Amino acid sequence: MSQSKKQTGGCLCGAVRYEVEGRLRDVIHCHCSMCQRFHGASGAYTKTDQSSINISRKRGLKWVASSLKARRGFCCECGSGLFWEPVDQPDMDPGMEPGMWIVAGTLDQPTGLATIGHIFVSQKADFVEITCGAPQFTEDFHDEIEGDE
Predict the structure, then answer these.
(1) Tally of helices (H runs) and strands (E runs) in the chain
(2) Are 29 and 42 in contact (CB under 8 A)?
(3) Mode of pairing for the β-strands spanning 115-119 and 27-30
(4) pLDDT tens, position by position, 94-105
(5) Which of 105, 71, 116 is nearest to 89 (CA)?
(6) For residue 76, how far is the Cα from the chain centroid?
(7) Minimal CA–CA distance to 134: which of 149, 122, 145?
């Protein structure tokens, strides 16, 4: 995880703003088919504990159940994708531990974050080429990425 500091972010139009007081995990790029449809290619996500995030402006925040296991938060005014979180289930997958996944591009700069991996590369769009040298995983990483805490 990156250093602990106060980090702010929000959507394109400002109808949603948030603050993170705590650690942010470095960025994992998800290439699953749902992220492709939600983001246009892949989703670049950081992560924090739910208790570390405060959504200070919620006017535009809406949630959609994107699967039986997760929901995604977005701004209904400008369309910006913002969050991803697992739905609390007793039989939750190991890779679906509680927390708030934050679309890294919605953080105010500078973030101090780095890319630490790519997941679901078996589903990546054919026009995407991964060249950064970070670890790649065919499906989920199940806590195998260094720095994912």
Answers:
(1) 1, 10
(2) yes
(3) parallel
(4) 454 678 999 999
(5) 71
(6) 18
(7) 145
Decide which of 5 and 12 is more confident.
12
The contacts found for 125-128 with CB under 8 angstroms, 24 or more apart, are 125/31, 125/36, 125/41, 125/42, 127/41, 128/31, 128/41, 128/42
Whether the pLDDT of residue 30 is over 90: the answer is yes
The pLDDT, as a whole number, for residue 67 is: 86
Query: In order of start, what are the domains of the chain with their CATH numbers?
Result: 5-123 (2.170.150.70)
Q: Measure Cα distances from 113 to 4, 14, 73, 121 in Å.
A: 11, 22, 21, 21
Q: How much is the pTM?
A: 0.85
- Phi, then psi, of 52 in degrees rounded to 5: -90, -10
Contacts of 76 (CB under 8 A, 6+ apart): 15, 60, 61, 62
Amino acid in the structure at residue 11: C
